[in-house]
Amino acid sequence: MVVKLRHRIAVKQARYILLISLLMGLISTSWQTYFDLQQEQHNLQAEVERTIDLHKESAASAVYHLDAKQAEIVTHALLNNPIIYRAGLIDDFGDILSISTREPAEKNTLATIGEYFFRINSHIQTPLNIANSKGGSAQLLIYLDSTFIADNFTRRAATSLGIGLIHDIILACLFLLFVYRYLSKPILNISSWVNQLRRSDTAPPIPYQEEDEIGDLVSNFDKLWHERKEMTDKLNITINELSKSENFSRELMENAVDAMFLCLTDTSIVQANRQAATTLCIKQKQLAGQTFFSFSKNYTGKELKALFASIDDTQPTTFEDIQINSQGEEFPIEARGIKLRLQEQDYILILARDISIRKEAEKQIYELAFFDTLTGLANRRLFIDRLNSSLKLHLDSHKFGAVLYLDLDRFKTINDSLGHSVGDAILCKVANLLISLLPEKCTCARFGGDEFVILIPEAGDISETCAETAATIAKQILDALTTPFDIETHQLYCNTSIGIATFPEKNNSALDILRHADTALYRVKALGRNDFQFFDPEMQSSAQERLEIEKGLHQALDNNEFELWFQPQLCSDDTIFAAEALIRWKHPQKGIILPGSFINIAEDSGQIVEIGNWVLKQALEQLASWKQRGLPKTFKKLAINISPVQFMQVNFVEDFLKLLNEVKLPGQMIELEITENMLLNNFEIASNKMKILKRRGISFAIDDFGTGYSSLKYLRHLPLDVLKIDRSFVTGLRSSSDQAAIVEVIIATADRLDLMIIAEGVETLNERSALMELGCHCFQGYLFSKPLPAEVFFSKLTASSAVNLISTEQEL
User: Fold this and answer.
1) Is-contact 696 732, C-beta < 8 A?
2) What would the mean pLDDT of 114-134 be, rounded to a whole number?
3) Could you tell me the pLDDT band of residue 36, with boundaries at 50, 70 and 90?
4) Domain match, 313 and 427 both
5) Same-domain check for residues 456 and 497
6) Domain range for residue 404?
7) Looking at 152, 170, 188, which one is the last position of a domain?
8) Where does the signal sequence lie (predicted)?
9) Cβ atoms within 10 A of the Cβ of 801, count?
C-alpha cells in the first residue's frame, strides 16, 4: 500500500522540527524582549532623572529671579531631548513662567503595539526648592513622547525577533538535512525495500548495511523475512491440508448423529449442526444468537453459565439435561462439553445426544428390578431394601413398625378355574384396594402369586400402639375384601389371611421379620383363614415344621415314601361295595403321616399336581391288579380324591383317559371325588370336563357336602352320582337333633335328584342307626374299618365277600 506524502516520517519530521524550532526561537526571543523591556524602562527612568537633574538648578534660579527668558531657555533646552515633546516651568505662586512644545512623533502600528506592552508615565512633575519662598512649591513639568519611545523600542525588538527567527530557521534546516541524510533517507529506502519484499517472492538487495542500529534492524528484518518466508511456505501447505480437513470436519459435523452446539461462555449459540436443528424443531440459521439455556428445563441462565465456566480444555465435562424443543416437547439429553480457544476467543463445544430410549430402558430396568410388572407394586427386592432402611431408622428414632403378610384365600382355585386373565384382574384390583387403604408412608409389595406384603414404617412409639395400628389396618383390609369383585361376567369373593410381625425386636433382620409374618399367616390359615394373627414363638415352631414338610415332599416321590391305603364303603347289610383310596406318607423318621398334615402344604407349594397324578396312577394300577386277581361281584368301584388344581389342569382329561386305557379298566369302576368349592368357582370348565369323562362311564361324588358354598345349581346341572355327607354332620348324630334336620334335607335332596348318599366318619352304632332312620344306607368310617394297606384291604374284601356269600347261601 502506497503511503501518502503527508504521512511519511520525513515530512512529519520536517514539519515538527520546523515548528519546534520556530516555537523555541519565538519563546527565546520573547523572553529576551521581556528582559529588554524591563531594561529599557529602567534606562528611560534613569535618563529622565539625569535630564531633570541637569536643568533643575537652572530652572530653580529662573523661578527665584522670576526670569522668564531664562525659564524659556531652560524649557527649550529640555526639548532637545527627543523623548520630551513638552516642558514647562511654574513658579511658587502657581504662575506659568514658560512652556515650550514641539510636535510628538506620528503614531504607527509598531508604536501602537509598543505602547500596549511598553507602558510609561508620560507626565512627570518635579518640585523645585526656592529659598525664602513664601508661596507654594515651584514645579518643573516634563511630557514624554511615548510614541517615539515605544516605536523606537518596538523596532529594536522586531529586529531582534526577526534575526532570531532567521537563525532558528537556518538551524532547523541544517538539522533537517542531517536527519534526512542519516535517518529519513535510509528509512525511505528501507520502506521501499520492505514494499518490494511484500510484492516479490525473492528478496532484493539490502538497502542499508552500515554497522549501526538501523543496519542491525535491516539485517534482523531480512533474517526474519527469510524465516517467515520459509514458515509461510510451510503454512500454505498446512492451510491447504487444513482446508481439506476443515471441509471434512464440516461435513462430519453436519452429518453427525448427535446435536452439536458451538457456544460462547455466556451460553449464546454461535453455530449448530443439522441434527441440533432437527432435534429442537427449529431452522439451523435461527439457532445462531439464541442461548443454550433457553432450551433447557433443568438449568437457569445463571446455573448454566456457572457450568460453562467450570468446563476446561483438557477433560470433557458430562452433564444431563431436559431439553424443550420449539413445539414444547421435552426429551432428555446427555451432553459433553469442552472448552476451545479460537482466534483469541473462548468457546464451549457441546455434543448433545437424545437419550430418551436409554432413559426409557433404564426406567423399565428399574421397574423390572424393583416393581411387580402386573400390579405396579414394589417387589421383594425393593421391599426388603425399604425394610432394612426402616430398621436402621428405628435404631435412632426408637419407633416401632409392622409388617403385614397377606395371602388371598382360594385364589389358586379361581385362577386355575377361570383362567389367568381373571386371576390377574383380581390381583390388580386387590393391589389398588390396598394402596387406597394404606397411609402415605407405607410400602405395599407383591412377592409373587397371591402374596402381598405391607410395611408400616412408623406405627407407634410403643409396641402396644404399633400393634393397635397394625390390627386396625388389617381389619380395614379384611372388611374391604368382603365386597365382591365384578370381573368380566363373574362376581367373585376374594378373602385374605394376614400374618403380622412387629419390629424392632431383639436383633432380628429383615428376613427374620418376614419369616415371622409368614409364620403368623400360616397360623391364620390353620385356624380357618379370613382373619389376622400376630407372630409368637409357637407359630415359629409350627412354621418350621411346615417348612420341613414342604422340603420332605420334594423327596417323598423320588424315594417312594408315599403309599395308598383304602377305606371300605359299606351298605346297610355290611357289604363292601366300594372303597376310597387315601394317601399315606411313610416318613423315614416320623412314621406314617396322614394327608391332613401335608395336603394343604402340597397345594400351597404347587406339588399337589404331581402327587395327585401319582395317586391316580397308583390307584388305577392297584385296581387293575385286584381285578386280575379276582374282585367280588359286590365290589363296584374305587373312589379317588382329585385336587381342584389337578382337575383344572388343561390336559387332565386327556392324561386320565390315556392312563385308563393303559390299565384296561372300564370307567364304571372309577369314581372321582371332587369338592364343592371347585364347582362353585369353575362351574363351566368343571362341567365340560365332567361330561366328557361321564361318557366313559366314570362317576362323580361330591366330597364333604354341606361344608362349602352348597348350591343346588350344580346338583341339578352337573353329571353327579354321589353325595358324601361330611363327618361334621355325622359325629354325635341323633335322629331328634338339629343335625338330623340338616342331614334329612341333604338325603331328601339327593333322593329327589336320584343321587346316591354316603355318610363319612361313622364311628358308632347310634350314628349308623340315626342315618338309617333318616334314609341313608351307605356308610364309611371307623365303625366298619380304618383305612388299610392294599394287601390288608384286599384280604378283608375277599374274606367279607366269602362271609356274605355263606350267609346268602344259608339264607337260601
Assistant:
1) no
2) 71
3) confident
4) no
5) yes
6) 376-535
7) 170
8) none
9) 18
Q: Are residues 34 and 142 in the same domain?
A: yes
| C-alpha span between 88 and 97 (Å, rounded) | 8
User: Is residue 659, in this structure, part of any structural domain at all?
Assistant: no
39-59 mean pLDDT: 80
Quick check: 714 pLDDT over 70? Answer: no
Q: Residues in the chain, how many? A: 812
Beta carbons of 415 and 476 less than 8 angstroms apart: no
87 versus 704: which is more confidently predicted? Answer: 87
Which H or E run includes 159? helix 146-179
d(Cα 632, Cα 621) in Å, to the nearest integer?
18
Res. 382: pLDDT tops 80: yes
From residue 195, give the alpha-carbon distance in Å to each of 3, 4, 204: 11, 14, 10
Of the candidates 141, 135, 176, the one whose C-alpha atom is nearest the C-alpha of residue 22 is: 176
Do 429 and 493 lie in a common domain? yes
C-alpha cell at 770: 340315626
Amino acid 223: pLDDT: 76
CA-CA distance, 587 to 561, in Å (whole number)?
A: 6
The whole-model pTM stands at: 0.45
Rounded Cα gap, residues 779 and 578, in angstroms: 10
Cα-based distances in Å from 286 to 125, 261, 272, 289: 97, 13, 10, 8
> How many domains does the chain fold into?
4
Asked if residue 157 belongs to a domain, the reply is: yes
Q: Are residues 142 and 291 in the same domain?
A: no
The answer to whether residues 406 and 467 touch, using CB atoms and an 8 Å cutoff, is: no
CATH of the domain at 346: 3.30.450.20
pLDDT, residue 257, reads 73
- How sure is the predictor about 275, in pLDDT bands with cuts at 50, 70 and 90? confident
Whether residue 408 is found in the same domain as residue 326: no
How far apart CA 665 and CA 648 sit, in angstroms, is 23
SS3 220: helix
Q: Among the listed ranges 209-213, 298-302, 588-592, 659-663, which one has the minimum average pLDDT value?
A: 209-213
Report long-range pairs for 549-553 (Cβ below 8 Å, ≥24 apart): 549/593, 549/597, 549/598, 549/601, 550/601, 550/605, 550/607, 552/585, 552/587, 553/598, 553/601, 553/602, 553/605, 553/607, 553/611
Angle at 87 between CA 83 and CA 88, to 5 degrees: 165
Q: Give the whole-angstrom CA distance, residue 531 versus residue 770.
A: 36
pLDDT at site 220: 77
Q: Which of 620, 614, 603 is nearest to 556 (CA)?
A: 614
The percent of residues above 90 in pLDDT, for the chain, comes to: 23
Cell of residue 113, nine digits: 503595539
2: which residues sit within 8 A by CB, 6+ positions away?
Answer: none
- CA of residue 583 relative to chain centroid, distance: 60
Please say whether the beta carbons of 518 and 546 come within 8 A. no
| Residue 463 shares a structural domain with residue 383 | yes
Domain boundary among 335, 360, 385: 360
What average pLDDT does range 779-802 have in this prediction? 89
CATH number for 529: 3.30.70.270
Give 723-781 pLDDT, tens digit per residue: 999 888 899 888 878 888 889 988 998 888 889 999 999 999 999 999 999 999 999 99
Of the candidates 393, 505, 397, 536, the residue with the CA atom closest to the CA atom of residue 461? 397
Are 499 and 517 contacting, i.e. CB atoms less than 8 angstroms apart?
Answer: yes
pLDDT at 500: 92
Say what the pLDDT of residue 247 is.
Answer: 57
User: Does residue 19 fall inside a structural domain?
Assistant: yes
Per-residue model confidence (pLDDT) at position 721: 92
Residue 444 binned pLDDT confidence (cut-offs 50, 70, 90): very high
Residue 427 lies in a domain: yes
pLDDT band at residue 249 under the 50/70/90 scheme: low
Task: Check which CATH number belongs to the domain holding 27 and give it.
Answer: 3.30.450
Same domain, 386 and 353: no
